Amino acid sequence: MHSAAGLLHDNFRYSTMDYGHLMDAAFRLEKSVIAYEKILRLAYFNLVTNNRDDHSKNFSFLMDSDGRWRLAPAYDLTYSTTSHGYHSTSYDGESKNPTVAQIKSLAQIFKVENVNNLIDQVNQSVSKWSSIAKNTGVSGGTSEMVGKYIAIAVKRK
Fold it and tell me: Is the dihedral of CA 86, 37, 10, 72 positive or negative?
């Protein structure tokens, strides 16, 4: 396992990482354009769920026994306002108030053609938030707060 922080020599506390950097690293490691989609999907998920704790130690790659690298399953996904109100990883240069415009810009830069499908898939997944929160014991107040944020973020699309 290797974190993006380690691979890209990024100080996660004072990060200069952008999702574009992460997309490029994933492509170089996986040797597949599908890597772009994986990162872009995660970027959009972090955007609509307000996971601003998206620093470079929270992205990792795993090497299998044949020496092939793959993006690790997503982890440390949490609604987070952070003390400074910025995403730790920027979206095409924007970290304070990124929108779907930055997602689509990254998609254009990296020639991800199915960006609207990717966005729809994430929106469909996060639309299940209320039932997931209820089934996993998230408190009513927290569930409602996160649910409201997700609804607003998805509508900004």
Answer: positive
The sheet carrying 69-71 orders its strands as: 2-3, 60-63, 69-71
Q: Count CB atoms within 10 A of the CB of residue 53.
A: 18
pLDDT (tens digit per residue) in 36-51: 999 999 999 999 999 9
Q: Please give the Cα distance from 102 to 137 (Å, whole number).
A: 34
**Whose CA is closest to 129, among 73, 48, 47, 53?**
48
Query: Do the Cβ atoms of 61 and 1 come closer than 8 Å?
Result: yes
Count the neighbouring beta carbons within 10 Å of the beta carbon of residue 130: 15
Rounded distance between C-alpha atoms, residue 43 and residue 111, angstroms? 16
Under DSSP, is residue 117 helix (H, G, I), strand (E, B) or coil?
A: helix
Query: pTM for this structure?
Result: 0.94
SS3 at position 59: coil
At residue 108, the 3 state secondary structure works out as helix
Distance, CA of 118 to CA of 136 (rounded, Å): 26
- Chain length of the chain: 157
3-class secondary structure, 63: strand
